[in-house]
Design brief:
heterodimer; A: 117 residues; mainly beta; 7-stranded mixed β-sheet; 4-stranded antiparallel β-sheet; 50% strand; B: 110 residues; 3-stranded antiparallel β-sheet; 9 strands
Chain lengths: 117, 110
Amino acid sequence: QVQLVESGGGVVQPGTSLRLSCAASGFTFSDYPMHWVRQAPGKGLECVAIISRDANYIYYADSVKGRFTISRDNSKNTVYLQMHSLRVEDAAVYFCAWGSQYYFESWGQGTLLTVSS
Amino acid sequence: QSALTQPRSVSGSPGQSVTISCAGTTSDVGGYNYVSWYQQHPGQAPKVMIYDVTKRPSGVPDRFSGSKSGKTASLTISGLQADDEADYYCCSYVGGYSFVFGGGTKLTVL
């Protein structure tokens, strides 16, 4: 059974940095791309970052490009999201998501980021 | 990539059917047969209800069905039940491992 467990969220001030982690199990992690999707309070879903299985292809939403970095450690079955220069508008629940085909089969429970002065 | 267009809300009485639309472009919905739909109850993670336009994952009731015509996909829920009340999001593959979501539709069961 696929399991995704996010961690690292919290309350931070604007301009600071934070790293999120997502530990995966139940599938061959190194065979698949991984995604970070966020949801601001009361808002919809937004794909933030994607990393291919070998990290050779990486995509960022325009809203986070240049500030966020996605990475993965296939030996630890973990994907990371390093966030710098955080803004109030980055506040959201951040989900880790996975799919073996062209949709998201499994989601983590999410980790909450609050950005406030 | 702009978000797909969904109605903000729909409603129906128990036992009735409702349809949620998802309008896109030739670069997303119209260009790929990889539209998926997600149900999200408050405080929970999204759950896939439909994938590849019309396919249902194991465990999803056949009251949920999907279709697509041109650049617009649709989710139909028949025999509405109280537990169907949730937010629903469409999603389309757009190439290069990337996806775009719709803005979400709040379904109210009257």
